[in-house]
Amino acid sequence: MDFRIKGKKVIGLTGGISSGKSTVLEIFGELGAETICADNLGRKYFEILKDRIAETFNTADRAKIASLIFKDDAKRKWLENLLHPMIISQAQEIIKNTDKAIIVFDLPLLFEAGLEGGFDLTICVWADDKVRLARALAKGFEREDFKRRDLKQYGLELKADKADIVICNNGDRKTLKEKTVRIFNIIKGNQ
Hints:
The structure is a single chain. The chain is of the alpha/beta class. It has helices at 21-30, 38-48, 50-57, 62-69, 73-97, 129-138, 143-151, 156-162, 173-189; strands at residues 9-15, 34-37, 102-106, 121-126, 165-168. Strands 2-3-1-4-5 form a five-stranded parallel β-sheet, with helices on both faces. The longest helix has 25 residues, at 73-97. The model has no long low-confidence stretch (mean pLDDT 92).
């Protein structure tokens, strides 16, 4: 899968649960990049297909389904196989049609899906496990749910090793924004 388009910089953004990738995506958007969030597209297509999904899961409640898929790999794969092609197709359309020169696509499963070769650059937002757990708990996650979900993704160390750029996010939003601005300016300067 190749997302690259001549004349544009297409960046794959990833990280772990509560590492801060959504905040980095938001900051890139504030700086003028086109931003795409796989999770938001997934929610969109979930709503469109919720009757079909409900037939498989006996519920259309997203929270209940999330709980189920992180306990049952077969159901998780079924849902991914249903939603991921639509998410990818929509992202390709956005990338193709935007007039912005820098596009940042937030994909939590960037490396797990083997999509890293389709980007001009990959960025991993990294944070210590204790920091991520504290953030997740503050958002209302249960400790065991956080651990179960986190184990379904590559470890952050592996994602960081695979990424072209790693943003360490153990601090506050101001520090994260400063780091993201520096990276954006470098990318913008190298077009």
